[in-house]
Amino acid sequence: MFGGAVSAPTNSPHLRKSGSRPAIFDLGTTESGNSSGEDFLHSVVLNEMKGVSTSLTSAAILPSPVLLWRFKVLLFFLWGFICCKIGWDSVMRMSADLRDLFLYEAFLYYNPLLLVTMMVWLWGINLWVFAQANVGYAKIFDLDQSHLTHREIWKCAIWMTIIVPTSMTAYLYLYSHGEVSLAASQPVLLYAAVTMALIFPFDIFYLSTRYFLLRTLWRIVFPLQAITFPDFFLADILTSMSKVFSDLERSVCRMVHRQVATIAWFEADSVCGSHSIAIPIVLVLPYIFRFFQCLRQYKDTREKTTLLNALKYSTAVPVIFLSALKYHVFPEKWTNVYRPLWLLSSVLNSLYSFYWDVTRDWDLSCFTRIFKFGKPHYLSHMIYGRKWVYFWVIGSNLILRCTWTYKLSAHLRHNYLTVFTITALEMLRRFQWAFFRVENEWNKMNSKTNIQLSTSEMVNEEEKLLHSNGHSV
Questions:
Q1: Residue 76, Cβ neighbours under 10 Å: how many?
Q2: What are phi and psi of 7, to 5 degrees?
Q3: Is the model's pLDDT at 44 over the cut of 70?
Q4: Disulfide: which of 168, 288, 297, 337 matches 110 by Cβ 3.0-4.6 Å?
Q5: What's the CA gap between 283 and 414, in Å, rounded?
Q6: Per-residue DSSP letter, 7
Q7: Are 116 and 248 in contact (CB under 8 A)?
Q8: Rounded to an integer, what distance in angstroms lies between the CA atom of residue 439 and that of residue 444?
């Protein structure tokens, strides 16, 4: 019964999975059966060897990911060199008296987007460190499962790094070669493209993230609801970008009045000139938004510290408007009256903001440990638990808080290279501020969770004691 020959058809569906080769089961011991089995096995082995060689050949044709990544980096640096070369040659074609005015205008159009690009790069680094240090930033910012990681953030930054300098290079080249109308269209097209990328309603280019950003901006401008952590975190970042918004306003003003690629805006009676009241208004708007957020928090929580925080943001108002008075008063009155008041208000604001950063936003009284990575990393070994990190953060924050007044001062805005550098340094200050601010919030959330867990455990223990052995109290 069990010793007879058992055979099965080669095409039986019960003996193979879909897509696999036919399987032969012949338990007979005849010579012809053996020879046929051996021939079949030999053919199978040959086919397997051919398949392996084919796959190896196709794999050898495709470039490795490392090689492809290096090729992309090489192209990126080659593109950067070409842009720098074309831009430099275009600027050198201009006369010396026109060159400074033209560069000032070019920087005005493009430095806001260049600084935004820099901030996106830095934010990607923030998210990378949070992920390595096991900081639940998605929970802190109340993000859904489709939130962008640091890799997606860096992809956006790469495209911004390519598009913005390319448009700037085209602007310089076209203007220096006499194509003024085409040159004037470059910043207009760039601003229109950025606007469309933000408000495009279709599900491409990270729609949920764009919607989250626009919704948070709306909540910042109109704080009619309870203030969440993403609301005031982004609002604090916007205060560091107030100079960016001021330059955006001036750029859009020139585009609307068709003053792009001209020097008409430099005249005293120009609509978009340095005397425009819109400049200090746009500079002060992020601080006004943050001020009303603090008042809203006081209405909801009745915590007096929120009023002190509101007072901190209100000290930025005299710094901005006293500086703008230079274009509306006589020089003697500015020198003798308003400039000393401007210096006094700027020192007060810088010291107050520095104190609040260290004691409230960061809470460095216990020297927290944000830079401990989950996996071994040379960066974590270099800065985790090192006191010099905190001394550096405190010292650099104090210095950059003082230089903050320079970039917000209306009477210093014509030193465009210096203002651009100081604004970039302010981005770096905000970048390192974000590490300790998010860590402080993460520690608060963990401490609240631990307190709730311990309280629930105590309640459970009390219930067990009260109801043990059938006794009731």
A1: 13
A2: -125, 155
A3: no
A4: 168
A5: 16
A6: B
A7: no
A8: 9
